[in-house]
Specification:
The chain is an all-alpha fold. The protein is about 65% helix and about 0% strand. The protein has helices at about 5-20, 30-50, 55-70, 90-100, 105-130, 135-145, 150-155, 160-175, 180-195, 205-210, 220-235, 240-245, 245-250, 265, 275-300, 305-325, 335-345, 350-370, 375-395; strands spanning about 260, 325-330. The chain has a two-stranded parallel ribbon with strand order 1-2. Helix 1 packs parallel to helix 5 and helix 7 runs parallel beside helix 18. The N and C termini lie far apart (about 55 Å).
């Protein structure tokens, strides 16, 4: 282990504790002891994972880093890298990594661990919308650091799903605190890092229907997205190629209906149907879920408080990847964190949140250990149970009055004409 990487990891731990101090969560001896102890152990766990290499690193990330290094880091951003289907914002981090002589695998993981801290912080801020309890807010922060899929994703696997997830959580927090423009901007940043950030986007029509944002806020999305790709454009990449990157990469998702994902396609055997027909079923169901949520919230928009919006966001972030075909093992990462956050604010949702984590973990185990811990249909069933529970939670939040589930209404737009 390079001692410089250990120092950087220690600095990230101090950064985590500084965020907690800034929020006033280290003001008693008991909370200080809990924060320092659990955070330090979480970072020790990450330290033990740093040198582990997965096939993803060996076959892809190492190749992309070599291409950036050979072409001169920032100049390398101006050239399309063979086999690289990631958008350029993450490549900015990789380009920086090539400028250091610290082992690149360690730096890749340290970037993800830094965003582990940000994801924990933004989750804590999201929880603070619903409770002022220092214990719950501290628990939200520390709990994210201890979620199995969080530390496995970055510190062990070397993946970066926590980056888009961090910005998606921040986007939801901003939406619930009446900052719709900034919310859309952060959603755009989330999608710019990974396409899976789109799992949060179906919540925005609900925010429009419930008068929490206006149509003009949607124009923020393309503007911010374009800003995220401009550095690579200035370095020489074709603007249109980057703008259509995700669309052009749809051919790389593969023909399999399921890739170690605890989705509907793990629960139900669709092999008797042609692949295209089975795929259409999932797409129709996903769009049907979104449409049903929109009609539901349009009818009950006067009763849609923050908890209802939060629960609906979780239903969509879980339900859409659950129903869609061609999903991979890591596509429930955002749902993992949001379901935990909901459980912190509503302990009655703890079991469904655990089911989400369990289903997601099965996919991680299948890839990282190259064998199934349990048949993936167990995960598919667990996710279905959780999805139904979160739908029930949404329904309960949309019933008035609901003092146990919902908080007083926030200020929202009041006239239909104000939607423009």
């Amino acid at each position: 282990m390079d001692y410089r990487a250990a120092i950087l990891l220690y600095i990230e731990l101090l950064f985590a504790l500084a965020l907690l101090w800034r929020e006033g969560l280290l003001d008693t001896p008991a909370r200080r002891a809990a924060a320092i102890g659990f955070a330090a152990l979480a970072f020790v766990l990450r330290y033990c994972c740093l040198t582990y290499e997965t096939l993803d690193y060996q076959d892809w990330l190492r190749v992309w880093l070599a291409a950036l290094r050979e072409n001169g880091a920032w100049r390398g951003l101006g050239k399309a890298i063979w086999s690289c289907n990631y958008n350029v914002p993450y490549l900015y981090f990789l380009a920086l990594i090539t400028l250091s002589d610290i082992p690149e695998l360690l730096l890749i993981k340290l970037v993800s661990i830094f965003f582990d801290v940000l994801a924990a912080y933004f989750t804590m801020k999201l929880v603070s919308v619903f409770t002022d309890s220092p214990a719950r807010r501290l628990g939200a922060f520390l709990g994210v650091l201890w979620l199995p899929t969080v530390y496995l994703n970055g510190a062990f696997w070397g993946q970066c799903d926590v980056i888009y997830t961090s910005f998606a959580i921040l986007a939801l927090y901003l939406a619930l605190t009446d900052r719709p423009g900034w919310s859309v901007a952060m959603a755009a940043v989330s999608v710019s890092f990974k396409l899976q950030g789109i799992f949060l986007l179906p919540i925005y029509p609900i925010l429009l229907l419930t008068r929490r944002m206006k149509l003009r806020h949607f124009f923020v999305f393309p503007a911010v997205y374009i800003l995220t790709i401009l550095p690579a454009v200035f370095a020489g990449r074709d603007f249109w190629e980057l703008l259509t990157l995700y669309y052009n990469n749809t051919s790389t998702i593969g023909d399999g209906l399921n890739y170690n994902s605890s989705s509907l396609y793990a629960l139900i055997d669709f092999t008797s149907l042609p692949t295209h027909a089975a795929s259409v079923i999932g797409v129709v169901l996903a769009f049907g879920l979104c449409g049903a949520m929109y009609v539901w919230f349009l009818i009950r928009r006067e009763d849609a408080g923050n908890r209802a919006i939060f629960a609906a966001a979780l239903v969509l972030c879980l339900g859409v990847p659950y129903l869609l075909p061609h999903m991979h093992d890591r596509y429930f990462f955002l749902a993992d964190v949001l379901s935990f956050a909901l459980a912190v604010t509503m302990p009655v949702m703890a079991l469904p949140a655990a089911l989400v984590s369990f289903g997601s973990f099965l996919g991680y185990h299948a890839y990282l250990r190259m064998r199934f811990l349990l048949p993936m249909r167990w995960g598919g069933f667990a996710m279905l149970c959780a999805l139904l529970a979160f739908l029930g939670c949404t329904a309960r939040c949309l019933r008035r009055p609901s003092p146990f589930f919902d908080e007083p209404e926030k200020n929202v737009l009041t006239n239909d004409e104000d939607l423009l």
